[in-house]
Design a protein that fits this description.
Length: 82
């Protein structure tokens, strides 16, 4: 797979399971006349409603949650991480 397709696939996977990313990076750009502005509370609500479970293997389990904790302690929101 070439780099162009890898970029597209990465963006698609993120939009597929992250409603906030979809609204901000896909919907609002495709439909500027119907742009949606979400509050922080709405972003969290939509993220929670449509998030998917990320598959991780047992060897990386601890590392995965340490990374999440680190990013959250830096002030990142759920929808910015995933």
């Amino acid at each position: 797979m070439d780099d162009k397709n890898k970029e597209w696939l990465k963006a698609f996977k993120r939009a597929r399971f992250n409603a906030v990313y979809f609204v901000e990076e896909v919907w609002n750009k495709a439909h500027p006349d119907k742009a949606v502005e979400l509050t922080e509370e709405e972003k969290q609500m939509f993220f929670d409603a449509f998030k998917a479970i990320h598959m991780i293997d047992g060897a990386n389990f601890k590392e995965y949650f340490e990374r999440l904790d680190n990013l959250k302690s830096q002030g990142y929101k759920d929808w910015e991480i995933f």
